[in-house]
Amino acid sequence: MSLHPLLWDTHAHLQDSEFADDFDEVLGRALVSGVQRIVLIGETIENSKLALGRAQAHEALLATVGIHPHHAQEFCEQSLNALRDLVRASKKVVGIGEIGLDYHYDFAPRDQQIRAFIAQFQLATELGLPVVIHCREAYSEMLEILPQDEAPSSTPPRGVMHCFFGTQAQAEEFIRRGFLLGVGGAVTFKKTVKLQEIVRTVPLESLVLETDAPYMAPVPYRGKRNEPAYLRLVAERIAQLRAIPVEEVARTTTENALRLFRRVDASRL
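Below the sequence we write its predicted structure tokens.
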């Protein structure tokens, strides 16, 4: 049994090939470190099926399903039907994602990225699920697409801005519209001063923790394969920045994750 504060890793890719050889060991280390839930994030239809398969086999795992902007050229009407079927197949599917815009790599034409994102966002709205948004060098464009209205504090979050790396003003605007900010290993990097200031100043109720494993490992593991067991380093850095106990970070971000992924049966946690 873990002696660490209980944490939620809201974004990981343990279904990917990087974990094929030692998945059980990686999951075991996560549980020992205090990570009680890990959300596996789909990137294509097939990858989403893999994520759901892992989630159905392990109590600690959940899944989201979606088509990443890198794969927007693959998106079609049949994609929506496939995603809808996956959601209906299991309560382990707790969101739609990873969807969004990536104007850094531009692996898919931007008009196709926008079309795929809007269609999947509408699907999430139809199904009453939150979205996991990937946004790189496209925050202004994303804010133009998303609902403009302020989200009442009494309503569940609309989604999460995965690996948020925008400005302070953009962070505040996403929060105003009902989105949480996903914070991962980058907050431990020496040069991410602007991100650290955002994490220090926005309400703790607007943050969730994530690893993005196998990517974005925190210091001192930067450059190596990331895994959920390292999530505590992110929590500790946030606690340090905000000058609060790490237990408070763990408790509040876990509560935030439960508000976000509201399809989870909290009574079973």
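The chain has nine helices and eight strands.
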